[in-house]
Amino acid sequence: MSDNEKKVVSIGSKTKKQSDKKDAEVKKELEYCSFCGRPNTMVPKLVKGPGVNICSECTLIAVQYLILQDGALSGEAQKILDLLWGTKR
User: Sign of the CA dihedral 50, 51, 56, 61?
Assistant: First the structure.
């Protein structure tokens, strides 16, 4: 599996056959971040959602904005960050 094939992550429920078929389609076409417009070949990771995509860099900017804007995270969001960063507050 090439680096570009590993960069696109799809969100949603799929069976194994559907997932394999979709992975084959991803190999053939470029995917673009809906926020910054960069293709999956220019970003570390790209998450595909229903009708939209977001790259890892735009995701980080969004998370930083939400944390700074609200000043405090919900309990669920804090649990997720603790799991990702291995910290407890």
Answer: negative
Tens of pLDDT along the chain (89 residues) come to: 565 556 666 666 555 555 556 665 555 589 999 999 999 999 999 999 999 999 999 998 888 787 777 666 677 767 777 777 776 55
Cα–Cα distance, 10 to 22 (Å, whole number): 9
- In the chain, the amino acid numbered 69 is Q
Count of domains for the chain: 1
Measure CA of the first residue to CA of the last residue in the chain; give whole Å. Answer: 38
pTM value? 0.53
Tell me the β-bridge partners of 10: 48
